Amino acid sequence: MTTNRTVYLAGDLVFRPGAIAIFDRLRTLCGQVGLEGLAPFDGQAGIESLPPGRETILKIVTADRALMDRCAGGIFCLDPFRRAADMDPGTAVEIGYMLAQGKPLAGYTVDGRPYPEKVAAYRRAAWNDALRPRVTPDAPVGSGALEDADGILAHSDGMVQNGMAEGFIHLSGGMVAVHDDFYQAFAIAAADLARRLP
To answer: Could you tell me if residue 30 is inside a domain?
Structure first.
């Protein structure tokens, strides 16, 4: 059963060890602020027994979309994914999908470094190079002043994650909670969203 206090819980959490236990705890935290949290797994009954492959993935995508359609808002984990600078790309798509429906959103992360700093750390670890001032001719600066060794802008200054994903959360009226404790960060985001739902 869904209500106008039912919210979608999203992020790379579905891929983490102990995912079901993580979502159980997030649901409890939602309940403490008067929300009902739904995890992607809640819409995937029977899918977990199917063999890996394209058809199974499309069933998961369809089920997740249907779950988002039922929810009044969403809470999204923006933590970097697979040791990279960026969040899980599927979660970024879900943020855009729910914003397009006009639903309120909130985000959270344990990594409050500015996005360009995350890009710099990733480049250093993966490629042993550093960001440099923007030197590519005829390239706009706008959202950032640094580029990587390939001439790609390290954008989204002032954000903890890619400006489109984090920006959509802000455009919905929400905020991105930052705390070094994962569950505390989530609790702050959930309380923010709870205040904005009827």
So the answer is: yes
